[in-house]
Amino acid sequence: MESKKTDQTIDEGLYSRQLYVLGHDAMKKMGSSNVLIVGLKGLGIEIAKNVVLAGVKSVTLYDPEPVKISDLSTQFFLREEDVRKPRDATSAPRLAELNQYVPISVLEGELTNDKIKNFQVIVLTETPLKKQLEINDFTHANGIHFISTDVRGLFGVVFNDFGDKFQIIDATGENPVTGMVAAVSKEEEGIVTCLDESRHGLEDGDYVTFTEIKGMEELNNCEPKKVKVLGPYTFNIGNTSTYGDYISGGIFTQVKQPKTIQFKSLRESLGKPDHLISDFAKWDRPGQLHIGFQALHAFVENHGSLPRPHNETDAEELVRFAKNINDQCEEKVEFDDDKLLKQLAYCATGDLSPMVAFFGGLVAQEVLKACSGKFHPIQQFFYFDSLESLPDNDTLNEENCAPCNSRYDGQIAVFGKDFQHKIANFREFLVGAGAIGCEMLKNWAMMGLGTGPRGAVHVTDMDTIEKSNLNRQFLFRSRDVGKLKSETAIAAINRMNPETKGKYIAHQDRVGVETENVYNDDFFDRLDGVTNALDNVDARKYMDRRCVYFRKPLLESGTLGTKGNTQVVIPYLTESYSSSQDPPEKSIPICTLKNFPNAIEHTIQWARELFEGLFKTPAENVNSYLSQSGFIEATAKQGSGSKEILEGVQNYLVSERPLTFEECVTWARLKFEEYFNNTIQQLLFNFPKDTITSTGTKFWSGPKRAPDPIVFDANNNEHLEFIVTAANLHAFNYGLKGETNREYIKNVLSNVMVPEFHPKSGVKIQVQENENIQLTTDENELQEIISSLPDPASIPGFRLNPVEFEKDDDTNFHIDFITATSNLRATNYGIQPADRHKTKFIAGKIIPAIATTTALVTGLVCLELYKIIGGKNKIEDYKNGFVNLALPFFGFSEPIAMPKFKYHETEWSLWDRFDIEGDLTLQEFLDYFKKNHELDVTMLSCGASMLYAFFLQGKKREERKNMRLSELVESIAKKPIPPHVKALTLEMVVNDRNEEDVEVPYVRLVIRQ
């Protein structure tokens, strides 16, 4: 399948999700940027991986040092057999597989100014401070963007220098704010008042321009005007006193203004650092680590190596270096004690996959900012640590953390051999093997998670790989398109770390009630934890419920473009994922969608619903009529909607059934007339453009835009696109061969007779959202439709092909139909049309995604996983995170504590329940709670089945009391309890000893072992 390209450089099929983050302009700038990455241990390769996936012009690698076994702690493109080979030359071909559009090369010889002068961005890792200063002096003087970064155990640093004048095109990446104007005052400080449907969302200093204003025409397409916010619905735009009088209408649109910022050189910044805070709970940490990292460089320069893991002599020497450096500073940094500096020394040789993932995602995003000017760069130092990930026990000593010639030496240096054993014998369930899932698996393989005798990692994902996945799901290659994600991901992981073979197990079952025979009690009982890598809320909530039920820790995360969030759910400590709800998405009122659209989002949604209503739903209804004997009776019970359903069946099976493609073209032409001409004529007949409401205002004002019918023109590309796409989709419904030759289709159209339309009186049109227009169904009309339907037996085997919407296939007409339909309706209502790219984004409900955010977020998740493995049991040990790499912003907080409830003197939370062993009778159950908990059970249910209620009739109640609860459940549900179910979950309504209703936990009744 060929992907559509907007120009020679951007493959929209590959970069689809990323384009919605960065935009075409930024991507084009990236496509002309050459990037040099120095240092190819874990951090360097993580940065390179993300930059290559993003799609720059070229990436050059420099690290001639030989591979060591400890590199394998984080360097996922190296193998044991690569030890002693040069890191750069060994990594290059494996990196090149990620993106065919980005050539990878290796820089030979010494790193000289002459060799680096032609790069637009240079990234230094594992580079001595002296060399960093030398290179930065050159790059700062020559307009080359410079980034240096290092990760030392649980500590890391980034430094940016993008030159004296760096222009930011778009600092936030948020869509420009737009809104409808209600009034503009004519005065020296002109005030714009917006319609009170929604707040304007502007801030002081923003700029806006205007369109569609009547009267004060000078504002239309004016130069951007600076805003001063007066209130949520009003803002000032400066002098309007010389303009015409405002009459009506208008749309304001925010105009993003370029911003120029200045960077200091590294040499200057060392003495006068500017810090971006990574964690506001560690406000003083950046200054302390600024000294600490300089001391590390001094230590290495003095000794030729980093401090030995947990060596007290080396740690004390690092402290002395730090104090000497601090004493020479103009503004000295306060240290409470030597503990932080010693921790830095203890784990400086450490190399942790989660830290590398965090910084690799962060720095790669800074590279893209340098290339494109999109988003605000870090100014200029950024320090981050996760000391709280260290275990609480005191087994961390020099002997336990010494290297042992293992691929995990980088992790052992920080956590010790004992903790490595715990990691290896942990059992985790990963739900989802997409973008987050791939990154998580890579981190876990590097950590050695689940590779021990007791360990295991289960991965489930029922999806297959698509081309658009390759841009950020880095375990997959183009040759893998069409294969199962879970199996392919694990095969890739096995190559990265052979110790995962047989320990990482692929599943293809969707998590849900229907697969609880697969993911049953035995499965969950063997797990130590669950990690979600899901992209839908329902599945997340389901897994959350399962984790609460089985009392397993859950690691949750998600991304949206440059934004990412992480949440940790710990039994008996925190609330669950479902405890907090996001606000519901704002929906479009039906009356707006059907009759009064005022934004392109409205017309796209309308077109998307029309797609379902023309090519999917009627075909499904036809098939149901032909295959289900009770279809008509069931449909008739649906009341007012039944006529529409049965008319659809009659149309698609009888009156509008095409036998040739030419008849599909005729059908499409008549649909064009219906939607873009006749319906609009009827609307204007009901509400002429000069209609005045009962309150004396114009009907067509404010958010209501007066439409105009469209006269069909076969030579208009948009008109013809609707015909071509609609006719081909209709042909697909009937298994007819389609046709895209436009001259042929025009010729067919020239012979189509279109009936003249006359608006009707008495047609009701919904104007207000709360207006309820009842559609009456005449029984005689219904019977007439039913009698016209052919007997299913007369057309055995006949079925229609319902169209399943697929946004990523550029050859299937789906997005093309929605784009043409939406833009035609936009033309009806004078709304600015949208291109195919934007239409696909809105209609397909695409979540913008980029590999940088994904990598960073999984790093944060795995830092929390260390804490779970270590058995930390204080809520303050854990962190939920929110990041926005565009700004950039980092926010961390303690998880929210679990809410607590009480009955009698007993306190309980969502993690508590009543556990009862044995299949009791209902009477025994009632007696148990009365005797042991002083609770009177007034109602008892199991799922949707009501087992007992105080208001049940006497005979029925007494019969049930003698039945075992499992029998009762099967009797009421009218189906057997599946053999995999070991326990019933029962919900109770109870009265306490004071005969008051009181909330209590659920009951887990074990019915079989």
From TrEMBL:
CDD domains: Ube1_repeat1 (cd01491), Ube1_repeat2 (cd01490)
Single Gene Ontology BP annotation: ubiquitin-dependent protein catabolic process
Family from the record: Belongs to the ubiquitin-activating E1 family.
NCBIfam families linked to this entry: Ube1
Segments forming domain Ubiquitin-activating enzyme E1 C-terminal: 878-1003
Leader peptide range in chain numbering: none
Record: active site: C591 (glycyl thioester intermediate)
Listed pathway(s): Protein modification; protein ubiquitination
Domain of life: Eukaryota
A molecular function (GO) term: ubiquitin activating enzyme activity
Keywords: ATP-binding, Ligase, Membrane, Nucleotide-binding, Transmembrane, Transmembrane helix, Ubl conjugation pathway
Enzyme class: ligase
SMART domains referenced in this protein's UniProt entry, alphabetically: UBA_e1_C
Protein name: Ubiquitin-activating enzyme E1 1
